[in-house]
Every structure is written in structure tokens, then in C-alpha cells.
């Protein structure tokens, strides 16, 4: 599906960028959400960690 393709593209970017990896780890630890949920929130929030965490906790 289109959503699966979008997620695969985001996960590819996450695997290459150490800054995004760090944000992924922090957001996962802070929220307890899955890596897929965290990556989607980070992407939707333009990789702004604070905004992504707030979105995940709402």
C-alpha cells in the first residue's frame, strides 16, 4: 500500500542519519511507543523531537 511505501522510505532515511537515530531512541524511550509510530511522528513533525513526542503522547 501507499502507507507501507511511505514508511519504508522513512525507515531508510532513519537508518542512515545518526541525528534521526538519536531522536528515534529518545522518543521511543520517552513515549514507550513502537519504532514505526515514532518514525511516523518524527516525519510528520519535520523531525522536531519535541513536537513528535507531544504528538505521540496526545
Automatic annotation (TrEMBL):
Gene3D superfamilies: DNA helicase RuvA subunit, C-terminal domain. GO terms for cellular component: cytoplasm; nucleus. InterPro entries: TC-DDR_regulator, UBA-like_sf. The keyword Cytoplasm applies. Its main location: cytoplasm. It is found in: Cytoplasm. Residues 1-21 are annotated as: Disordered. Keywords: Cytoplasm, Phosphoprotein. This is UBA domain-containing protein. The lineage of its organism: Eukaryota, Metazoa, Spiralia, Lophotrochozoa, Annelida.
Amino acid at each position: 500500500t501507499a502507507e507501507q511505501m511511505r514508511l519504508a522510505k522513512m525507515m531508510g532515511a532513519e537508518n542512515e542519519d545518526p541525528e534521526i537515530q538519536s531522536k528515534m531512541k529518545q522518543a521511543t524511550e520517552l513515549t514507550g511507543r513502537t519504532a514505526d509510530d515514532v518514525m511516523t511522528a518524527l516525519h510528520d513533525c519535520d523531525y522536531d523531537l519535541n513536537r513528535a513526542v507531544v504528538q505521540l503522547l496526545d
